[in-house]
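Appendix B: complex inputs.
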Amino acid sequence: MKLTGIQKQKHGAIGAREIGMILFILLLSLLIQLRNSQYLTAENLNDLLVNAAIMGTLAVGMMMVIITGGIDLSIGATLALSGMSAALYVRGNETASPVLAVLIGIGIGLLAGLINGLLVGYGEVLPLIATLGMMNVYRGLTYIIANGAWVSAHQMNDGFKALAFNRFLGINSLVWVAILTFAIGAFFLGWTRIGRMIYAVGSNPEAARVTGVNVPAIRTLVYAIMGTITGLSGVLWVSKYASAQGDTAIGYEMNVIAACVLGGVSISGGSGKVFGVILGTVLLGILKNALPLLKISPFWQDALYGLIILFAILMNTIFKRMVDKNNLQRRHI
Amino acid sequence: MAALKKFLLRWEAVLVLVLLLVNVFNTMSSPYYLSVTGLLDATRDFMDKSFIVFPMAMIILMGEIDISVGAAIALSSVIMGVAYNAGNGIPMVAAILLALLVGTICGLINGLLLTRFKELSPMIVTLSTMTIYRGIAYIILKDQAAGKFPSWFQEFGWGTVGPVPYVLIVFAILAVIFTIVLNKTKLGRRIYAIGSNRTASIFSGIKVDQIRILAYTLAGFMSGLTAIFLTSRMSSTRPNIGYMYELDIISMVVLGGISTSGGKGRLAGALISIFVIGYLKYGLGLNNISSQILMIVIGLLLIISVLTPNLVARFKRWSTVRKSHRQSMRST
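Resulting structure:
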């Protein structure tokens, strides 16, 4: 059977879109390298990957949420809350166990995500409203549990700070976490029943319900997964920057959503691939890394990110219209 | 229809009751709360952002959302501040008009994007324009502030007629206009029609795109207007001005009983909830309750106001199913 364009786009591991993005990344890298030879050095590339790792990890969770047709705006706040909780446990405690700190972060993140999920899945609250409201709650809680104070580097023991700096086979632990999340995410979404149900819920909730998918449970699940990943990322974030503050990662959800949208995850739900999200993460990571190398003021970053997201979703739409038109024409003949 | 009307009436009655409770609570907890001048003065804090409640109500009634309004406030305010203060800056009157223009353009861009690319959800489009608008504000002003406005400019935020602040008067005028538009004009009925059934509206000849562009442009214009009053009250501007205002504004509309799925709810509810949220914040502030707890309260309020009707509907569905089940059991 010959696959039509849209089927190829959905089923192929690497479609035209991904090849286009890879070419764009190579071209961009070439241009940056020509302007500043510091770019393609082992040290800088390592920096780039380490800095993009947390965004990539979060993007896998966000991708699942977006595939179900939802969105999670609360992850910046959840990240801060779980990071702060772990930091408060570690604060001034020389014997604090890094493993327990990670578990605390994951637990808090899971709880926060579960609340979002129950609100969206069973409370039938719009994802935007639910997560916008909970964003405020989690952010407020972060300030309150810390009493408005910071936890800074000298209050953390070496074991905790090492979490984000350990290397295994020469690769930073944050990058390992991202790679593992990508691998597990790809397997989960592509080859498990629940993974396929996530796509089903996103592309047609009513049809999914009729076929016996427990739609509210799947919706709850994706937010819970998102929360768990965010909790883990929160602890790693605090360990990496050796500082936990009330305003940690404020607005970071935009970067993560950008990575997904750029990676071809359709915001209306039902489609998206882990490989695309990896490319989206790398592309954003390159941009972030290149701004200082090209001596562009950091104040440009937000506006650029916004423009990139807008450009990506517009291109997606135009591309999809062309494919649809093509398919229609083919049917007439 | 009569039952629906009764429910809506009841929701507004509940809001009035909540407003009374908030006031009783505040009066009991702080001796400084209950005074006519105090209560009128307090409206300054929330009247400026409530201008945006009107177009936001229209947008939510159509089943859509605009989360870029806070950023549009920031961009209008920053451009106004910089245009007046730059080298040989423009006169203040021109800077004020410029703020309105910038806000309007921000809204128009949202409207045009959404009508040209109908597949896109308003949420993601306004999320990206939100980042762009505030991003441009940061590019223009970096981490600086712009102030040094002429002294008469303060009148917008601080001026009064007798004990009544200007903002409150502007708000009252807007409230009358928008109530008439939404309840008594064709445009108003069409907005409800679009929200309840978009496809049917298109087929019955309603110019849906025009109305959507109008609503988003109005949201932009009101953001510009808010920027003027807010900047005047703050006496200077920064790129982070109006941060997260969209949350307050959406909360006010949704708490007012306007359904996020569109087509249901009335402006009157939203108008009452402006005062509920405003006085709640004011009272908590008087009692030295931290702004972080305020954040939590507003967030929870938003969620509870959406969750409650959903749970009520769920319960009703469940009980009708049970009742019919019981009846069928009995009849067999």
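Chain B touches chain A through 47 residues (CB under 8 Å).
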